[in-house]
Structure formats: structure tokens, C-alpha cells
Amino acid sequence: MSVPSISVILPFYNAEKTLKSALQSISEQTFRDFECLLINNNSTDLSVEIAQKFCNEDSRFSILHEAKQGVVHAHNKGLSAAKGKYLIRMDADDWSFPNRLQMQFDFMEKHPEVDVIAGLAEYVAHRPDTDGFARYVRWSNQIVSERDICLKQFVESPIINPTVMWRKNISLIHGSYQEGPFPEDYELWLRWLEKGVKFHKINEPVIRWHDSDSRLTRTHSKYSDEAFFKIKTLYLAKWLQTHNQFHPKVMVWGASSISRKRAKLLKIHGIEIAGYIDISRKRKLDAEIIHYENIPLPDEVFVLVYLKEEKMRSETMKFLEKKGFEEGINYLLVS
């Protein structure tokens, strides 16, 4: 078999209900020059039989087995065997649009300066009370350009993991997913962005992203809010060393107990909170509190905006920019 242009890496574990649809969506891609590496991660249901059937019928599909449990080990098993110039992540419960591979391949061939190309996702809810995930997908789908991805990387993960394609040499140079008490995909994007890896998105949906009660992001502690904030704070502190002219001092917009708790994680990494900015003057805190109307000038302070609600973030951005602040220069959104 000749060396394929694209290697699709698809780990699976007990995915008999969704695996066939996921594999069918890869099999029916308009772009044909690919290999699909199916990594069985100790499945005990019919997943292996389903995967083997595709391998028997199409030589582009092959199955590998990884004994160490976990998507990181399974993915890296596939990475070690991948032959393609480009790598694509695919989950066993998602569905790729027929032109996905073609769109992402064409973009990368035309834009050699881009290292990672992601895409939009269509969110498929499994029950009606999933506003959090739906909101996240809507937000992520608005973050498309390289600039926006860089500036919004500390709000939430700007990239939905199974939408990505990257140049194989990027993971060889900067490493792949790592095991640890953190969301492995978010840590990877933060690490690569910190190393100067260039990200972009196609402004088109490339997958249908299916939700479920068993999704690890709902069930595992390494995907908790606490885990997200610990890993994001580590890389935020590194970012501030380079981009904050007042390093190590920052001011924090948002003096709620949650905002203060999250901002205080910065102190572990040597960042000093010079004060808080808030709508209230009444709170007694461990640092100075300033009413937002009395905010210092842009050339006097760097502001980290710790506001979770999207509407409040948007209104705060408008206020700051009216005062002459520039995102990434004088302020940054963090949550």
C-alpha cells in the first residue's frame, strides 16, 4: 500500500452502538487517499467485530490494540503507526461530513504556514437539558481565526478535539496528548499555542458531535472545572510573562468568590494580584477593590477578566475598548 496523505486515528472502547456510523462516515469520504487506524482499548462488547468487518472490506482500515486504558494511550498507539502527512482525530461516537477530509486537506495544502486546521461542529444532544454543552459549541464555533484562537484560549478550549487535522511533524516536534490530571486535548492546544504552533478553523461544520451521559467530560475528574482552571492557569502564567508589560502584576475584573478563587491560582506561578475591579465597592478583600468606573488607564495596568457569563464578558469588552484597552495588549478574557 502506498503512503496515504491522511491518517485518521480513531480510538474506541465499548462503542458498539455508534462505531459503525462513525466508520461509515470515514469510509464514504469524498477524499479517498487515507488510512484509518482503529485502536481497540480493551473493548468487551461487539466493537471489535464491527471494526474488523470494516478492515476486512476495505484495506484502508486496520485495527490495533492498546492494553493501557485511556484515550491518551490509545491515540498515541495510533500516532506511532500513522504513515500520513496529516493526522485527523475522530471519536467513535461522532460522524464526519463527507467532504471533511477534502476540505481540511485542501486548506493545509494551500496554507503551509498553518499547522493545525480545525472546523465547526454540529452539536447533537442526547437529552433536552444539555444547555452547557450546546452553549460551549456555539461559543467555539465563533472562534475561527488564528488571532481569535490565540486570544480566547484561556476562556475555554477554543478547539473541539475531534474536528482537528494537523501536520504529523508538529506532534513529533512538540509532543502529542499527555496523561495527567487535566483534559488532555485542552492541555495539548495550550502547549502547542505556547510553542507558537499556528491554528486556524474552516468556517464549515466538519463533524456532528454527539453528546451522551457516558462522555468522559461528564464523568471523569480530569475534565472538572477545577482541572480546567489549573491547567489553563499554568499556561496563562507563561503567556503573561511574555505579553504583560507589568509582569508579574495584574488586576482582576470580577470579585465574586468564584472569580477570586480561580484568580488566586495565579499566585502559585508567581503572578501578583494588584487589585480587583468590580461593580461593588462594599466587599472586603485581600487586595484593593476598584469600582469599574474608576479603572486605571490602559498604560497603567493589565486586566484579566474573570467573568463566566458570555453576555457579561461581551459588555465588559465593549467597556474596556471604549476606554482604550486592546485585547491581548491591555486585557485578556480568562473565563
Descriptive account of the structure:
- Helix 2 (47-57) links the parallel strand 2 (34-40) and strand 3.
- The chain has helices at 19-27, 47-57, 71-81, 100-110, 131-140, 146-151, 168-174, 184-194, 216-219, 225-243, 257-263, 310-322, and strands spanning 6-12, 34-40, 61-65, 86-89, 95-96, 116-124, 165-167, 199-210, 249-253, 272-278, 288-291, 303-305, 331-333.
- The model has no long low-confidence stretch (mean pLDDT 94).
- The strands form two sheets. Strands 3-2-1-4-7-6-8-5 form an eight-stranded mixed sheet, sandwiched between helices.
- It has two domains: 6-223, Alpha-Beta Complex (Spore Coat Polysaccharide Biosynthesis Protein SpsA, Chain A), CATH 3.90.550; 225-333, 3-Layer(aba) Sandwich (Rossmann fold).
- The protein is elongated.
- By secondary structure, it is α/β, with parallel strands linked by helices.
- Helix 8 runs parallel beside helix 10 (225-243).
- The protein is built from twelve helices and 13 strands.
Uncertain spans: none
- The CATH superfamily of the largest domain is identified as Spore Coat Polysaccharide Biosynthesis Protein SpsA, Chain A
Fraction in beta strands: 15-25%
Return the average pLDDT rounded to an integer.
Answer: 94
Give a quick account of the main beta sheet: strands, pairing sense, barrel closure: 8 strands, mixed
Q: Any idea what the shape is?
A: elongated
